[in-house]
Amino acid sequence: MSILDSKIPEGPLADKWTKHKNEINLVNPANKRLIDVIVVGTGLAGGSAAATLAELGYNVKSFCFQDSPRRAHSIAAQGGINAAKNYQGDGDSTYRLFYDTVKGGDYRSREANVYRLAEVSTNIIDQCVAQGVPFAREYGGLLDNRSFGGVLVSRTFYAKGQTGQQLLLGAYAAMNRQIGRGKIKMYTRHEMLDVVVVDGKARGIIARNLVTGEIERHSAHAVVIASGGYGNAFYLSTYAMGSNVTAAWKAHKRGAFFANPCYTQIHPTCIPVSGDHQSKLTLMSESLRNDGRIWVPKHKKDVEAIRNGSLKPTEIAEEDRDYYLERRYPAFGNLVPRDVASRAAKERCDAGYGVNQTGEAVYLDFSAAIERYGKEQAHVKGLDENDTALVQKLGKGVIENKYGNLFQMYEKIVDQNPYETPMMIYPAVHYTMGGLWVDYNLMTTVPGLYAIGEANFSDHGANRLGASALMQGLADGYFVLPYTIGDYLAHDIRTGPIPTDTKEFEEAEAKVRSDIDKLIANKGSKSVDYFHKKLGKIMWNKCGMARNEKDLKSAIKEIAELRDEFYKDVFVPGDQNEYNEELAKAGRVADFLELGELFAKDALEREESAGGHFREEYQTDSGEAMRRKEYQYVSAWEYKGQPSEAVEHKESLDYENIEVKERSYK
Question: Can you give the residue ranges of the Fumarate reductase/succinate dehydrogenase flavoprotein-like C-terminal domain (predicted)?
Fold first, then answer.
């Protein structure tokens, strides 16, 4: 038997989840009161899981490093959440959502997991409406939908440009109900620093109280990691600045395999980098691509004039604009998947057509949409459709209703009015498809240790379609984990409380203290940010939108050297027994410095292009990703000490319900 047992149920794809639910073990309500579950992370995945598990009767301990669960990074999601409701009557279905997701992931995701995700997607919307999430509605009262990249239907439910915030508030309200009942014990400003494994099973965590510095032991019958992704390894990203890989990486070092670390998503519509002073980047929702048209000037002379300020983009004639996505991908146009749109923007900018001072920006233009909506509104109201000023006013009103908060955010950051001049955008790190390897039950290779949401690898393959992150997080937390975890916990109803005074807890705590002491005692000369920025530049330049063998080998060497330098020359001010944000940051960067090397190693081993992993050696004549049959597997890495010593295990990806073919959006 393979060391990677995915536990995919037998039978037809459409029946697997129902069959599995009918056959797995359950825990009766009285026995659930005897079982403790730790959930690390309070975003959409962690928050929904904690609330649902507590509602079922389990005793839940919930941990987040923020001062409130509602500060989880899920709150930053803007554009929407996918579900196969087919309210538009445009041909959507469970199968089509499943197909779009597998194709969008460049045929590098597990069929059974993705079909289940599509199947439960409709339940999510009903759940959230019942919680009071204020989804946008059409005139007739039905929930409204819009399109996102990589699909030909409208299946994205949204609440203006604040969908993540509204969904998180729904999960947070559900959590608060259970906190009030005493079924969730909430630990804010706590960071998980290790997993405790007893007799081969995850039985608790070691956490640090970030306010007092106290190291704490917490036990449970199962541990759930819902701590998000690792995009901040690149330093500049659209992630919250506190987002990190520590919880997942500590789990990896305790035996949980780390899968597909090189699969990282670059989002095409971010506000461009403006200088070395920046500490993060800001996303402009993909929903803007419904109405915004992406272009660069056709002529280099116009590019130069824009850069030196002698020409405005609004002064460039329509025939002198290159709407390159519409030109290259006529079927999908501006709504191609994120990896395709990102590489296309990079190609234009690398060719010298970038429109800002750094040459790394393209335009996202709403002038055509404003005119179209304005004329439509004038017609509806019986007004003069040829009155330019009126049409502009009415059109801007429609755009404001749809995207107003996003436009306001852009203007505050860039100090340009996007109603009057095109937005400038450029790709940036946004999401990680890789993560802890999990089976069909969402359990890692460590029994009793689960990973959900962005912390696992299971649903998106090599590229995530827009509006699918929120879908996966809530599907895992509300509708999958609460079923599957019972199959494992059914064997623990007579175990009793897990003691924390055992040698396993003592050893794990001692290791955490030792690691912290080393960082505090190290009297180096350089700040934590110095090393994080250097790592970020290596990652972006050599492991970013395009990769090649030479650069990846160089990155592996440079990251290992930087890690050695970090431990020799980092300076962490203050003490461990106090609020010390630099100490917390140092621990996170130390983990990034290990993950970064494994990331590059994984990218080097995968000699193909797929989704967000683009090897320059493997591309078609037209510059598209070139998959190779022999790499149709999940790479799951086993920790063996240093990242260079990690051992790769492979889970074959077999497609019985989808034909694997060249991925085309033309």
Answer: 532-665
Q: Where are the domains of the chain?
A: 270-429, 501-621
Cβ-based neighbours of 235, under 8 Å, separated by 6 or more = 532, 533, 535, 536, 537, 539, 540
Cα 516 from Cα 129, distance rounded (Å): 45
Arithmetic mean of pLDDT, 391-417: 95
* Percentage with pLDDT > 90 across the chain: 96
**Residue 189 · residue 209 · CB < 8 Å:** yes
pLDDT at 1: 33
Mean pLDDT, range 89-113, rounded to an integer: 96
* Residue 278 clears pLDDT 90, i.e. is over it: no
The angle formed by the CA atoms of residues 405, 411 and 417, to the nearest 5 degrees, is 105
- Would you state the CATH architecture of domain 501-621? Up-down Bundle (1.20)
Residue pair 231/48 in contact (Cβ under 8 Å)? The answer is no
**One-letter-per-residue 3-state SS of 324-373:** HHHHHCCCCHHHCCHHHHHHHHHHHHHHHHCCCCCCCCEEEECHHHHHHH
Q: Which of 631, 526, 542, 641 is nearest to 594 (CA)?
A: 641
Q: Check: CATH 3.40.50.10490 for 270-429?
A: no
> Helices 388-414 & 367-380, crossing angle to 10 degrees?
140
**In terms of Cα–Cα distance, which of 336, 348, 236, 332 is closest to 286?**
336
Number of H helices, E strands in the chain: 18, 19
- For residue 4, with 0-12 CB atoms within 10 Å meaning exposed, 13-18 middle and 19 or more buried, which class applies? middle
Angle between helices 94-104 and 111-131 (to 10 degrees): 120
**Is 338 tagged catalytic?**
yes
pLDDT given at position 32: 98
Per annotation, catalytic residue among 70, 338, 547, 615: 338
pLDDT of residue 2: 52
